[in-house]
Amino acid sequence: MADDNSHTNDTDGIGSTPGFRTAPEERSLTDDESSQGLFDDLLSGEPIFENKEVLRPSYTPHELPHRSDQINKMATILVSALRGETPSNILIYGKTGTGKTASAKFVSQELEQTSSKYSVPCEVEYINCEVTDTQYRVLAQLANKFIEKNHEWIDDRLDELTDLHDRVESIDDDRREMDATKPSTTEADEHQSPQSADETDDLDPPETNGDDGTDEAPSTATDSVSEPTVQFQEESVVSSDGDDDDGGVADEASGVDESTPTHPLADTPFDSIDAVTERIEELEDDRDSFEEVPMTGWPTDRVYSVFFDAVDYSERVVVIMLDEIDKLVEKSGDDTLYNLSRMNSELENSRVSIMGISNDLKFTDFLDPRVKSSLGEEEIVFPPYDANQLRDILQHRSDVAFKGDALSPDVIPLCAAFAAQEHGDARRALDLLRTAGELAERSQTDTIVEDHVRQAQDKIELDRVVEVVRTLPTQSKLVLFSIIMLEQNGVHSINTGEVYNIYKRLCQELDTDVLTQRRVTDLISELDMLGIVNAVVVSKGRYGRTKEISLSVPLEETEVVLRSDSRLSDIDDVQPFVQARFDN
Ligand SMILES: Nc1ncnc2c1ncn2[C@@H]1O[C@H](COP(=O)(O)OP(=O)(O)OP(=O)(O)O)[C@@H](O)[C@H]1O
What we know:
This protein is of the alpha/beta class. Among the domains are: 2-35, no CATH class; 151-285, no CATH class; 404-467, Helicase, Ruva Protein, domain 3, CATH 1.10.8; 472-583, Winged helix-like DNA-binding domain superfamily/Winged helix DNA-binding domain (Arc Repressor Mutant, subunit A), CATH 1.10.10.10. The protein has helices at 2-8, 24-34, 40-44, 68-82, 100-117, 135-181, 183-192, 194-202, 234-240, 273-289, 300-312, 325-332, 335-342, 369-375, 387-401, 411-421, 426-442, 450-470, 474-488, 496-510, 517-529, 555-563, 575-583; strands spanning 90-94, 122-128, 317-323, 351-358, 378-382, 533-539, 545-551. Strands 2-3-4-1-5 form a five-stranded parallel sheet, sandwiched between helices. Strands 6-7 form a two-stranded antiparallel sheet. A hairpin with a 5-residue loop joins strand 6 (533-539) and strand 7 (545-551). The two termini are 71 Å apart. Residues 1-29, 185-258 and 576-584 have low confidence and may be disordered. Residues 57, 61, 64-67, 94, 96-102, 359, 393, 426-427, 430 line the site of adenosine-5'-triphosphate.
């Protein structure tokens, strides 16, 4: 790297390779010649998008049409957090893409902004339980979040207190210097103010912070050195601190010299520099006591207790937002929810409220009745969008996403209609619109037309199939492969027995366990539910009933995806015996 620079900067060329001595003009000429124009054609097309990001799932819209009822209901419940009360727990239900997460995040942002506006400590913690799906991980993530917040809070206080300490110290130094140079003045002053000394004797020491300020609770947002909970009168500081050695403010603030600026400790909960030092040490100890939780390895009750202490370190209302909460319950039961929901009875300073989001309406059936009733104190349902609502949503986004006349008039209605058929999924509608735009961009046209939407629909469907097939368990892949082989060999209306025969041979070929026919029948039903095969039960009269199976996805593409699994890539060898079987 350094060498390259030395070459290019080497004006006299000594010691440089000739190739590096190209003059700038020459260099650009060379670059132009070497470029194949790979990107030029693409760049030259008039871009369709103004801002593609607003169509991506990661974008949180500022406006959520057709969700004002749900948003208002959430806000009505959560407003108690701003009054320092515990909001009821909320369960949010609705099918995928109905705006649950977007609405909940929108409300949380508003809540946090209002809380900082009014200096009410209120925080929302978001956890995606699809990713964080065990009690340990949920608690560890929460614990570390609050430890981080506590550290930040402590660091801010330490900065303020250290600064205060330094200022007091420098004033004390000045005062000592003055004492040293003018001893008689001080003496005279002391005699001059007997009255103030009497007065100060009568004044109580600061009530709320004791004599050292150590119980200055770290608890409220207003609780800082700059905004103390206890307002000190200068005189009271004077009176409570007659001792010369402690560096207090008595002499300083005694009002002898009217031109003396306000002492730094005035208007703070501290009556002496020692009290400040003590508080600094205390905060440093607190800081050290918060040990970050590792992502594995501790007993869960230890993680819980660290989380508990970290949350309870200061007075605040915490809303824990558990998105995809059903995944957490499915993976690791309801222990997490049980522990979180009973926390409030033990917390001293803080309050915790849970907001669960799920697209599985039935997951509460698996909950302990106590957890179920506590969690479902308030329930908010997000119904699917209809085509008109989806149209509004798309219209809002497309105004920002696309260039002026990039959309032909039938595009948004068509995207909305397709997505409305898919259980009113706004995510699907936005995906369709974005993909249609990308396809139009790729074909270098200026306008997105209906055909782009239809192509986008096919592409998204294929992408979905690819993703579903790719992530199937191996046994299901083998069952699917058997069906594909039968179809490839011209067998239609395939029955379970035929699938099972091929499946067994594939298992032998690949040296894997062979499941029972009953289990294979279940796997076929699962593939049916995923929309990969179509299995209909038909009556064969006195021969009973049988399943007729056919493939619902494109054969070749699906086979390619299956073969991309290294275990299934050599299945070619099986082909002859499939043929042989049909000859029977
Ligand atoms: N009313 C709306 N206005 C604008 N955009 C919306 C609206 N509802 C949903 N969306 C958008 O649709 C997409 C999906 O929404 P969201 O993630 O909130 O759905 P969800 O109900 O939480 O789905 P899932 O259960 O799959 O997580 C997001 O990009 C979101 O911004």
